[in-house]
Design brief:
The complex is a heterodimer of chains A (about 525) and B (about 80).
Chain A lengths: L1 E5 L11 E6 L11 E5 L8 H22 L4 E5 L15 H19 L3 E4 L2 H4 L4 H4 L2 H7 L8 H15 L6 E4 L10 H4 L12 H16 L3 E6 L3 H10 L12 E4 L4 H12 L6 E4 L3 H10 L15 H13 L6 H13 L12 H8 L1 E7 L5 H10 L3 E2 L7 H9 L3 E9 L2 E12 L2 E7 L8 H15 L4 E6 L11 H4 L3 E6 L2 E7 L11 E5 L1
Parallel strand pairs in A: 1-2, 1-3, 3-4, 4-5, 6-7, 6-9, 7-8, 10-18, 14-15
Antiparallel strand pairs in A: 10-12, 11-14, 12-13, 13-14, 15-17, 16-17
Helix pairs in contact in A: 1-2, 8-12, 15-16
Chain B lengths: L1 H13 L18 H15 L5 H6 L3 H9 L5
Helix pairs in contact in B: 1-2
The chains are: A alpha/beta (about 525), B mainly alpha (about 80).
């Protein structure tokens, strides 16, 4: 049982297990209480001097109770707020001063008594208009000191504050990179092209990074889980001067193309922390949903749609997961230990129920023959896509049209899932029986769509009577992730020359089965 | 309709397992002065009405509540 000292009716704002003193009555201090709460607010009176004197008296009473309860028991005190008072002159500061003094004496008592914790009641009241804080009808029928309609909000807020006093907080933030810690896509926009620093939206991302850096100094572990080429990110950390958070600020990272659930589990193991102490931040709804489904113990907040919302997002992150009554030396040291211990096993492990996740996404693939409407987009993709691009041939619209006239076969891919439509995000260009280009935007990767797409196209060609197909992989600084792609599709490597790999595949002899959870439309 | 909704509010407010229309301050232990306040807040929220202090003073049993709510145009 917790025992509450109070001067107004506040019973309904507390859960079961709280008992209450008489109004402004400190004559009874029950010894069997687990803890004590001190919750006094301004008395409703009109002579400013009288109110001020009464408030001074409350502070003395708090000190007295504290001296009586013994150091082994916790006492929690709420600060006093200006809920209602009407001074008649602007230069009458007596009440304002009395409130400040009262709160100051609580802070001083907390220095003297380590078992006293002071909660800033203003953090609650400032969310409301002053006229919403007291409902006068309830004040007059029962001396209720706070509007009863705020009961639920108050209970939620108060229980969070009690958790903070119990030092309950999450330990670790897991961040995506592209469009989360910076604007844009590193693999497409390049080290200088990502939005960080400078004008909007770069300034919003750098403010966000600055805020996170400070949060990490309070003992919160920062980690990365991103689908990117690790080398690109390391280079960006080294070369982009606007990035505030760099390699050394992250206790662990997984920058690869494996699914995020596997990566998050590995990070938890590597840091030796529970999954239930992690918070995952990603701008992609599908990634968030995947993690929510597979790892329900990980907290996955929604991510703001606009970069200018990042700072209010930061505040809710802190208040919902990381705020703590006090930050200890140990919290701060812990961060260094985590960084020192971090070893980075880079194996890619597949998650057992990954297929179930894919099924739940209701993925719609549309494979469409090149036409006047999609040719500009196809050409643009050949210019922009770097990572999932097997040959990285860059073409203009005019060239694409010329290929069609020369009898080349060109298809593009549109992808949609239960979270929305990604539009045209892939294409394949076939010259005779050779795959000249194959590329997919990295926005849609991680759902094994690449295999479904290639197999669909191979099936079409097989249906047209083609027996064999050839392909090649041309390495660039950006496309390491697809170096083994054709092997995974069942192609045989015929030769390798200066890093370029040449393949062939017999269409009759190969397995072109596609998982049944992709809904494929051919146009 | 309104009667059932009132019973539902009484049941939730006072945390009762069972309830009937004979409920009153005499028969229900949780319906003390603090219970009365909680009841008023819950009735006001459920029916989107404003109860005046003299009406609150008159509400001592189920029938009182029905009578007062009817004066607010509820059926």
């Amino acid at each position: 049982m917790w025992f509450v000292f109070r001067n107004h009716t506040i019973e309904r704002f507390f859960p079961k297990g709280y008992a209450f003193s008489g109004y402004d009555d400190i004559s009874v201090i029950p010894e069997n209480a687990e803890g004590y709460l001190w919750f006094y607010q301004i008395p409703i009176k009109f002579n400013q001097g009288v109110i001020a004197a009464e408030i001074d008296d409350y502070a003395l009473k708090a000190g007295y109770v504290l001296s009586r309860i013994g150091i082994a028991k916790q006492m929690v005190a709420l600060t006093m707020e200006w809920l209602y008072a009407v001074p008649f002159a602007d230069d009458d500061h007596r009440l304002k001063r009395a409130i400040a003094n009262y709160n100051e004496s609580l802070f001083l008592l907390a220095e003297q008594y380590p078992n006293l914790k002071v909660i800033d009641f203003n953090e609650f009241t400032r969310q409301y208009a002053i006229s919403d804080l007291i409902d006068w009808k309830y004040y007059f029928i029962s001396q209720m000191g706070l509007n009863p309609r705020l009961t639920k909000d108050f209970k939620d807020w108060f229980s969070r504050k009690m958790d903070e006093i119990a030092l309950k907080r999450k330990k670790c933030l897991v961040f995506d990179l592209d469009n989360t810690l910076w604007g844009g896509v590193l693999g497409e926009d390049g080290i200088e092209g990502i939005r960080i620093g400078g004008d909007y939206p770069g300034n919003a991302f750098s403010n966000f990074q600055e805020a996170l850096l400070e949060l990490s100094k309070s003992g919160v572990i920062l980690t990365i889980c991103s689908k990117n080429n690790e080398r690109d990110v390391l280079e960006a950390w080294e070369k982009n001067p606007f990035l505030i958070l760099k390699k050394e600020h992250f206790a662990a990272y997984r920058i690869n193309w494996a699914d995020k659930v596997t990566n998050i589990k590995e990070i938890a193991e590597e840091l030796n922390i529970g999954l239930d102490s992690m918070v995952f931040i990603d701008d992609q709804p599908a990634e968030r949903e995947f993690v929510r489904q597979m790892l329900p113990m990980v907290e996955v907040p929604e991510f703001p749609n606009q970069p200018y919302e990042l700072l209010s997002f930061f505040r809710s992150l802190v208040e919902d997961y990381f705020k703590v009554y006090s930050v200890t030396e140990e919290d701060i040291k812990k961060i260094q230990q985590y960084r020192a211990n971090a070893s980075r096993a880079q194996e890619q492990k597949k998650y057992g129920d990954f297929n179930e996740f894919l099924r739940s996404l209701d993925i719609q693939l549309t494979v469409e023959w090149a036409n006047e409407f999609n040719i500009p987009r196809i050409a643009q993709m050949t210019q922009k896509v770097n990572q999932f691009n097997l040959t990285t041939h860059r073409y203009t619209d005019a060239e694409v049209r010329q290929f069609l006239r020369n009898g080349w076969k060109i298809w593009c891919l549109s992808v949609a899932d239960c979270f929305g439509n990604n539009g045209i995000t892939g294409c394949i260009i076939v010259n005779g029986q050779d795959i000249d280009s194959l590329l997919l935007s990295c926005r849609i990767l991680g759902k094994e769509i690449e295999f479904a797409f290639v197999k669909t196209v191979l099936r079409i060609m097989k249906g047209n009577g083609m027996k064999e197909i050839t392909a090649s992989y041309i390495p660039t600084a950006k496309n390491v992730q697809v170096a083994e792609f054709y092997e995974k599709c069942g192609f045989s490597l015929i030769s390798e020359n200066e890093g370029i790999k040449y393949y062939k595949l017999s269409l009759d002899a190969s397995n072109l089965d596609i998982a049944d959870y992709y809904h494929i439309t051919i146009k | 309709m309104m009667e059932e909704k009132i019973l539902e509010v009484l049941k939730n407010t006072f945390g009762l397992e069972e309830i009937d229309m004979t409920i009153s301050q005499q028969t229900c232990e949780a319906w003390d002065s603090m219970g009365q306040l909680n009841l008023v807040v819950d009735l006001e929220e459920t029916f989107d009405i404003c109860l005046e202090p003299d009406e609150i003073g008159q509400m001592k049993n189920f029938d009182d509540i029905v009578r007062i709510l009817k004066t607010k145009g509820l059926e």
